[in-house]
Design goal:
The complex is a heterodimer of chains A (554) and B (295). With 554 residues, chain A is α/β, with parallel strands linked by helices. Chain A has 22 helices and 15 strands. Chain A is globular and about 75 Å long. The radius of gyration of chain B is 24 Å and the shape is globular. Classes of the chains: A alpha/beta (554), B mainly alpha (295). At the A-B interface, helix 2, strand 2, helix 4, helix 13 and helix 14 of A face helix 6, helix 12, helix 13 and helix 14 of B.
Chain lengths: 554, 295
């Protein structure tokens, strides 16, 4: 009897203790675990692409550091007890052929490193083949508050994109979707020379384009200038057509919603027609390079550099490439950024593509999958957390403001960091307190200051973050609710994998043909029906099924 | 006054032949000249695309930059190591395998069997993945041997060589045999010295092949420091589409715009192998004709 009651007491005491400790543990435990140190230290093997910026800019500025021995490795080793090494490294970016080839043979040979950086299509294959760890529990338990916040800044889309059947199969290498916002870049010096106003509607822009092509804005007496820059690839972050189409409320190469809330592919919507007709007229009129159909980005950039083009639709970095090449040759070339003008009274919606496309997956059977989460925590913490040491771990001034953050194998970042940096700079500028700037904002401002002091090589920074910088426009987009977020963020569906290449080629051929006048605008209708027949319908169904499964899960 | 040389009879064949060959030669030469012209131009001239076959705004900046680029020279060293080792191994194995295969049936009974064994590898390959896995299993990954051993016996060159061996008069080896020479001695002291044209030809094939191949370096090396030169150059000349650029790629854009630098590296990278040609060329023509036609 006594024995039994003692037992009871003990059990109930333990239960009470357990109940008490649950919230305490989960509140404290999360932060305690998120950056806790392994003792003894553990080893973790990554693979990585080493880009040209790292080899030609960062390494020469960091004399005692290498790809496999540097400040980030020291940090991870000292504070987390994680020793990182690379099974292999390749030269180039993660989307370059070298990395793709190497990752393909690695995956095919079944010889996986502990953490592997893959595309969403590869992630899906790995998940289906059941060779990678389910990270759901590890992320829930180990992600720091900062990590959670950063990964939910774009809503649930970033984590959703790595979630298969409710399981988080990888940590996304987050890329900011907001940076895919397009702007209208235009040569202000040409506008002034021809006595034109800054265009605020699409009609005005079309008139400007005509004037640029016909009124000899470069003053050499030869009709050798064009209005709009476009390439044979059509969709691009610079010299692309997506911004132009957005002015007509058309969103090619983009998944958006129709009136019923269903997902639809923008390239097959009727809004495309007006924009295509307008482009065809511009081509007819000589406002577009007659040979654009065979020119890639590098080639069209040459035309811009030679000062023959006055209008470019592209992302915020365009002044760093290719517009700067125009400025370098001709310092009077003054490119300014404007919001995309609308063809009617409806404000333009600016499509934001879903940008996250690389994922860190953990090999099945690796003993410490949570180590990956800890690395992500630490990377964010040291750059943007409360204990950050930005001026040592991100872009140290003593290392020539080069991107030493690239030494880390995991490099997530808060998606709104650039816009926030701009807002900080703007606030400091208005308060006349520039010396209060810290972190990335300070580095950025130092570039802007260098330009204002006469250093032409950093011209682009002033165009992006300066008083008249392009982030003013982005801020306005955001404040006016003009940003249109892409709704499909999942891995490529089955039919996409099979047919997308064909369908995309068909789409681009149709657009180029219509613009060049080789086919009438009716070609578009034929394309739409072909597109649906040749797999587009199946893709649309799959995408909607994915979308429905998402809302069902929430 | 010398006698007027007899004029050749006019023939349409030689006119058309000369035109075609000149065009073919130009199509090889023009890109090299273009690249050289860009490499000696200023970067802004190159960026505007006005350079064709003569440098515009002459500048040596890109070469000064290449001199400081450690990775370029590192790769150059790897490539030199590769052609030395690879060329030597190829040549040795070509000679060793083509000699027995050049024998008659009655001298070497299993000749057809071996000949087919070699020949089949010319028609079929295991494919990329099995190739990669085999090399991995042999623990060759990330070493210079991975670039040298998998292609150690170039079968095309073996066939060229064995055909050349066959047209060496039998009497030579028979005489040597009577004088007491064994097969080794016949090979090294009779066949090899009389086959210098063919040897020069296959050596040139081997050297050029090793110098130009880039894909194996990219796949089999685990560290860019071990890339041979052409693999390295491949990574700096990749064509980009400007869609879906990540934060890292945007930063890279500033570095890719430097065309003159890329051109300088391509030009320097092709120089060493171009310099080999004059030394081997006179054998080259004779060798491929003899080996091929009389086989």
């Amino acid at each position: 009897m006594t024995k039994k009651s003692t037992w009871r007491k003990l059990v109930s005491a333990m239960l009470a203790l357990a109940l008490l400790s649950v919230p305490v543990l989960s509140a404290l435990g999360e932060n305690a675990d998120s950056l806790s140190k392994y003792d003894p230290a553990i080893d973790i093997v990554f693979v990585r692409a080493v880009d040209n910026d790292l080899t030609s800019n960062v390494l020469p500025q960091t004399p005692n550091e290498t790809i496999e021995s540097n400040r980030w490795f020291d940090l991870y080793q000292d504070e987390l007890g994680i020793n990182i090494s690379y099974a292999w490294t390749v030269q180039g970016g993660y989307t370059d052929d070298a990395y793709k080839q190497k990752i393909n043979v690695t995956l095919a040979s079944g010889d996986l490193p502990d953490v592997i950086t893959v595309t969403s299509a590869q992630l899906k294959q790995l998940a289906d083949a059941d060779v990678i760890e389910d990270l759901t529990g590890y992320f829930d338990q180990y992600a720091s508050d900062l990590t959670r916040q950063v990964y939910s800044d774009e809503g649930s889309s970033v984590l959703d994109s790595a979630t298969f059947e409710g399981k988080l199969m990888a940590i996304p290498n987050l890329e900011a979707s907001i940076e895919s916002a397009q702007f209208l870049w235009i040569r202000k010096d040409w506008l002034d020379k021809l006595g034109l106003d800054v265009p605020t509607t699409m009609q005005e822009l079309l008139a400007v384009s005509t004037a640029f092509a016909t009124q000899d804005p470069d003053g050499n007496g030869i009709a050798d200038t064009y209005g709009l820059a476009i390439t044979k690839d059509l969709y691009a972050g610079c010299m692309g057509v997506e911004g132009f189409f957005a002015g007509f409320h058309a969103y090619p190469n983009f998944w958006t919603t129709d009136a019923d809330g269903k997902l639809v592919y923008g390239s097959v919507q009727p809004e495309m027609k007006d924009a295509l007709t307008a482009l065809a007229a511009m081509y007819q009129n000589g406002e577009i390079d007659q040979e654009f159909g065979v020119k890639d980005g590098g080639k069209v950039a040459e035309t811009i550099a030679a000062g023959k083009i006055g209008i470019d639709f592209g992302e915020q970095w365009n002044p760093l490439y290719p517009l700067n090449q125009n400025y370098n040759n001709d310092p009077t070339a003054d490119w300014i950024s404007l919001p995309i003008p609308s063809v009617d009274d409806t404000a333009v919606s600016v499509p934001l593509k879903f940008r996250t496309n690389m994922y860190f997956a953990v090999r099945k059977g690796f003993e410490h999958p949570e180590a990956l989460v800890k690395l992500v925590n630490m990377h964010l913490e040291k750059n943007w957390g409360e204990t950050n040491n930005f001026s040592w771990y991100y872009m140290p001034a003593e290392n020539g403001n080069t991107s030493v953050w690239k030494f880390s194998p995991v490099t997530p970042y808060p998606p709104y960091k650039n816009l926030n940096a701009f807002l900080e700079i703007e606030a400091a500028r208005n308060a006349d307190a520039m010396d209060t700037l810290v972190g990335e904002a300070k580095v950025i401002q130092s570039n802007v200051d260098a330009y204002l002091a006469g250093d032409g090589s950093v011209w682009g920074w002033d165009k992006i973050y300066g008083v008249e910088g392009v982030y003013n426009v982005l801020k306005a987009y955001r404040d006016n609710g003009q940003l249109l977020v892409e709704k499909f963020t999942g891995a490529p569906t089955e039919t996409m994998v099979e047919r997308r290449a064909t369908l995309e080629q068909m789409e681009k051929e149709m657009i180029v043909k219509v613009i060049m006048g080789a086919a009438s605008i009716d070609e578009f209708d034929k394309f739409v029906s072909d597109w649906y027949q040749l797999g587009g319908q199946a893709i649309t169904d799959e995408v909607n099924a994915w979308y429905a499964s998402l809302s069902a899960a929430e | 006054m010398q006698a007027k040389p007899k004029s050749k009879p006019f023939s349409w064949f030689s006119v058309i032949n000369t035109i075609i060959l000149t065009l073919a030669a130009l199509s090889c030469l023009v890109p090299i000249i273009h690249i050289a012209a860009i490499s000696f131009s200023s970067s802004s001239a190159a960026a505007t695309g006005i350079v064709t076959f003569w440098p515009v705004d002459f500048s040596l900046n890109s070469y000064q930059y290449v001199i400081k680029r450690a990775q370029f020279w590192q790769s150059m060293l790897v490539s030199l190591e590769r052609i030395t080792l690879g060329g030597g191994i190829n040549l040795l194995l070509i000679i060793l395998s083509s000699f027995p295969l050049s024998k008659e049936r009655h001298e070497f009974r299993a000749r057809s069997f071996y000949a087919w064994l070699f020949f089949i590898t010319m028609l079929f390959s295991g494919g990329l993945i099995p190739w990669y896995m085999a090399i991995r299993q042999y623990k060759l990954l990330d070493s210079i041997w991975a670039l040298v051993l998998p292609g150690a016996v170039p079968v095309f060159s073996v066939i060229l060589m064995l055909n050349f061996f066959r047209q060496i008069p039998k009497e030579l080896s028979e005489a040597a045999c009577i004088d007491g020479a064994g097969q080794w001695r016949i090979l090294w002291q009779i066949y090899v010295p009389t086959s210098t044209p063919a040897i020069a030809t296959v050596l040139l094939f081997a050297l050029v092949g090793h110098w130009n191949s880039w894909f194996d370096g990219l796949i089999l090396m685990n560290n860019p420091d071990h890339y041979p030169l052409q693999s390295y150059i491949q990574t700096i000349v990749v064509q980009r589409t400007y869609s879906m650029l990540s934060r890292e790629e945007i930063q890279q854009l500033a570095t890719i715009s430097d065309r003159t630098l890329r051109s300088a590296q391509i030009f320097l990278g092709s120089l060493p192998i171009i310099l080999v040609y004059p030394f081997l060329q006179r054998y080259f023509v004779k060798g491929i004709v003899l080996g091929g036609v009389k086989g």
